[in-house]
Automatic annotation (TrEMBL):
Species this chain originates from: Ferrimonas balearica (strain DSM 9799 / CCM 4581 / KCTC 23876 / PAT)
Coiled coil (UniProt feature): none
Residues that span the membrane, as ranges: 47-64, 71-88, 103-124
Domain of life the protein comes from: Bacteria
Transmembrane helix as UniProt keyword: yes
NCBIfam families assigned to the protein according to its UniProt record, in alphabetical order: vanZ_1
Entry-linked PANTHER family: DOMAIN PROTEIN, PUTATIVE (AFU_ORTHOLOGUE AFUA_3G10980)-RELATED
Name of the protein in its database record: VanZ family protein
Length: 136
């Protein structure tokens, strides 16, 4: 695997690991001691969701070479994978006493996904069409 591919996947998986660590802290009710500053910002939690899921989407789209389903360039594989992960993670909060299932968190995740997908489409056009993907 070429260095560039290793770098892309390394960054995407490292950020996924960071996000999983944040989720594990939240599941144990310990996130406030690490990220208490987020709660002091207006809508800090929602901005966090937008940023975390947006960046994860962008990194996975990049690692996957901007590949998309044949239904359209907007249906990028990274976006789809992160969307499934976000929905699953938000839904599991219903069974965790330290978490709150919140439709607005899922909406913030979706905003991050949409913004990152738009940026991904722009970056994909700059880099040319990816192999095995819909035309941009």
């Amino acid at each position: 695997m070429p260095f560039r591919s290793l770098l892309k996947w390394g960054l995407a998986l490292a950020f996924l690991g960071f996000l999983l660590w944040v989720i594990a802290l939240a599941n144990r009710g310990e996130v406030a001691q690490w990220f208490g500053i987020v709660r002091t910002l207006p809508y800090g939690d929602k901005w966090g969701h937008i940023g975390l899921y947006g960046l994860l989407t962008l990194l996975f789209n990049w690692a996957l070479g901007w590949r998309a389903l044949s239904i359209g360039a907007w249906a990028q594989w990274g976006t789809i994978l992160v969307a499934l992960f976000a929905v699953a993670e938000e839904m599991t909060q219903a069974w965790n006493p330290n978490r709150t299932l919140d439709i607005w968190d899922l909406a913030a995740d979706a905003v991050g996904l949409v913004l990152a997908t738009g940026l991904s489409l722009y970056l994909a056009r700059l880099s040319g069409p990816a192999r095995g993907s819909a035309q941009h």
